[in-house]
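Think of the structure tokens as a kind of shorthand, similar to the way a musician reads notation: each symbol stands for something richer, in this case the local conformation of the backbone. In the example below we present two proteins back to back. Begin with the first one, reading the sequence and then the tokens, and try to describe in your own words what changes along the chain.
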Amino acid sequence: MQFLHPSMLWSLLLLPLLFAGYLWLLRRKRQQVLAFSAVSWILRNMDIPSPWRRHVPPALIGAAVALLLFASARPMARVTLPADYMTLIMAMDVSRSMLAEDVEPSRIKAAQKAAKEFLQDLPRNIRVGIVSFAGNAQVVQHVSQDKEDLVSAIDRFQLQRGTATGSGLLLALSVLRPEAAIDLESVLYNPNPFGYSDSGNQAQAGGAKSLDTKPAPQARPPEPPGSYKGGAIVLLSDGRRTTGPDPLIAAKRAADLGVRVYTVGFGTPNGFIPGYEGYSFFTQVDEEALKGIAKITEADYFKAGSAEDLKQVYKHLSTQFTMEKRDTEITALLSGLALVFVFLALLLSSLWFKIAPQNSFKSSP
């Protein structure tokens, strides 16, 4: 829990003083009690409440004072509230490994079906954009609320060679936060996509820079990871990165922009593509990289080994995006609770200690 005015917490030291003052009043009241010769007759003819009852209203007043002193520090708590609106970017792996049939009828068919059902379950206040990636990345559907357009975009997936997970993540991040001005040209159209060092070529050229080299963009101050409330990214992959930038570096860029990246590893360890271009080869999910992406961005990783697993993952994600967690000031809540305590103390006092002169004493014979 955080506080906007933490110095006001020192005011809680007044509570022991209030408690000491209450004990002093009780002791002073006992000392002022007068001895009557007919005390026994008075006690028999009075309605005396239970001894503990007289302490309940003061205790409620003390609790109300404590709540008000605590509220003066203006505490902030993370609460779950309905999302006003959100932009969700789905980054889908469309590499050839999605042809594997370890998930019936195939990984790509099961992923398409689960994604379309996921879109149907989303409320209208969530906008969705779709990015696909294989050897490179491309925007399949710009951000939209039209579910028919989104479903049609998923049906248009074309499988390609390679798995550029980092490229897909950076493109999804650029679509979600265009104001970040991510330089996609060097990522999506990299002449050295496999990441080989070109230091030798630079040395041969004398280290001279090209006249077309763009100046580096001004660095943005990093935002706290997970602090961006306007949207998130869901990245699904079934294989290991073979080209493009390191996805963990791309995840660090997303974290600096406060964007959470929820990752889904899809497929089984024994998945393989039989008879593709005369060869049969195994495809395995890079769980460590996907877990790393989720951890860096303070999101979650999900493992789906079947079509039903993937459906449950998407169902869980739909609840994540319907409700969002916010740091909200709870001063008004605490003040309202203190008012309830005061009202309850007054009510109990009027019920337990109501003076009724006609019933307090019986007339002497």
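Once you have a description of the first chain, move to the second and do the same.
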Amino acid sequence: MKGASAQSALPVATLTGHIRDLLESNFRGLWVTGELREVKPHHTGHVYMALRDGEARLDAVVWKGTVATMRWRPAEGTLVAAYGRLSLYAPHGAYRFIIERLEPVGAGALDAALQALKAKLAAEGLFAVERKRPLPKLPRAVGVVTSATGAARRDIEAVVHRRSPQIPIILYPATVQGDTAPADVARGIARLGATPGVDVIIVGRGGGSGDDLAAFDTEVVARAIAACPVPVISAVGHETDTSIADLVADLRAPTPSAAAESAVPVRDDLLRLVDDLAERADAAVRRGLDRRAERLEGLTRRLERGVSFDARRRVLDRLAARLHDAARGAVGSRRQRLVAAEHALSAQHPHARLKRAREALSRARARLEALGPQPATTARSQLAVLAARLQALSPLASLDRGYSLTRRADGGVVRASSDVEVGDTLTTQLRSGWVSSTVTGRGEAAPPHEPESTP
């Protein structure tokens, strides 16, 4: 009160209590319309949100008990009609609207504008999967567009330094919240994209409300990402937040830390890979050299075998020629011996001997006839005696008397049982014709005669 002393000053708790009584008694049973923003379910079951109308903002809450009875769950960006009362939260000295009933009215202006921008950019192909570029395997430098004092910068730097400390980070300290944020973020993307050595850019910030992330739902940022000459990773807010920048970027990361992990490899893994590739290359070279050495050794052996074979072949040719000459000589000698044997055998043949005897007899007869009748008669008598004796000695005469001439398969004459073996095939010449037989038994004495059968 004007003119009151300090002794009459009200405690803060008393003042806030008066204000709360005033608000709750005069502002109850109200219907308020606005666009839902920053809808945040709490782990207690309450749902916190804000109602926006242009630049005006009204914080609101739906208690857990009311949430359980609501048939319609609010979505951010929806224009709603909320029924409830005003209340003062004493610890913060701030008032808020306690919602007891919530009904949709239609799409809010901000949400409608955002959906229209998404449709426009999608029609131009900025969200198309085929325009997404792959990230470099080992970037020379990583560009980062974010707040210089934000947690996103610290997270990105920590991850990059842990995984690949040799890769530098080039930071563009941009304003990521407020009216100047969209243009500043777009400027940072363009500047880092033109910086030599920067092969990938991370654009983003930490989590926040819908209004805090609004800069990344603007057309200027979307077009800056699409025009960037190097791949861009978007890491805006938390994993549940999806902005237009996420849709245009070459890769959307759920958090700034995840973006850093996607941007750079683990150096130790690369070193192990290099060592492994070096070992594999060394092993491949050794295997190739071993194969070539084996091939060379095989060719050498084949060449040595070829030289040795030629020498041995010449020796073999000489031996073959000598063998051939020796064989020809032996065959000729044996042929001559065979001819001589044939002549000798022919001379001893009974026919040949008989022919010679007849010739001698003819010559003797001629000589006797030349001597006259008496000598001729005497000689004829002698010749007849000789002829009879000769006839008796002839094998053919034996055949006439019922005897036979038996020969083995080799032509030899069988004279005794010891000349044959059981199973030999024999040929027996008779007076008229011949027969063939097989030896089934032999002995020194004459075989017993079977008794004649009595008629």
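Compare your description with these statements about the second chain. Residues 35 and 62 are 15 Å apart (CA to CA).
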